What we know:
Helices cover 16% and strands 43% of the residues. The chain is of the alpha+beta class and 233 residues long. The protein has 2 domains: 8-73, CATH 2.40.50.580; 84-231, Trna Endonuclease, Chain: A, domain 1 (3-Layer(aba) Sandwich). The strands form 3 sheets. It has a 6-stranded antiparallel beta sheet with strand order 3-2-1-4-5-6, with no helix packed on it. A 6-stranded mixed beta sheet has the order 7-8-9-12-14-15. Strands 10-11-13-16 form a 4-stranded mixed beta sheet, with no helix packed on it. Helix 2 packs parallel to helix 3. The chain is globular, with a radius of gyration of 18 Å.
Amino acid sequence: MKFPSPLTEARLLRRYKRFLADVVIADGTETTVAVPNTGSMLGLTAPGSRVLLSRWENPKRKYPYTLEIVEADGTLVGINTGLPNRLAAEAIRAGLVGDLGEYPVVRPEQRYGLRSRIDFLLQHPERPPAYVEVKNVHFMRDKGLAEFPDTTTDRGARHLDELAAMRAAGARAVMIYVVQRGDCSRFRLCADLDPTYCAAFARAQRAGVEAFVIGCQISAEAIIPDRLIEMVF
């Protein structure tokens, strides 16, 4: 995924109200930017951090700039949670996610379960449908080890249980974790931060839900899904 225009460099002053941050651009201008991430962004909000911003020339937008990338731990980290579905779709088309690229029909944002939407419903004339859920990952505490989640996520646990229910009904169910940082070669679930999510993952795995972890290379020009990452327990 290439950014449509060059990103603007800035320094982070503070993040607040989840959706907002104050930054100072290289020319000294201070401005408020949109933060497309409802999570804690643990480890990614240190004042003074170098950040990269996209700019949208839309007069109806209250905040023209959007925070896209934070530099942390010596690497660039993508924080926009609106991008992982697009990155997962690219990885599927590139053949990185098992045989999912062989499904000719890909339907995004389809209703399923009790009150959810699946990120992708894949259909094939000779195979069961595949329900694909995507999660964004940018948390790292130990060098080279990406972790999810970085805070409690009841919604994420519910999604895993609904995937397990679809698998029990005869469909295929797939969980994809997209790691938006290039310095990780392994991935694990955060049992200490959210044991409920980890228990839901264990139930889903026993039910036959598949799991894949996609690694990305991050630059100021593009975010490219380019490899599978090992999941460790």
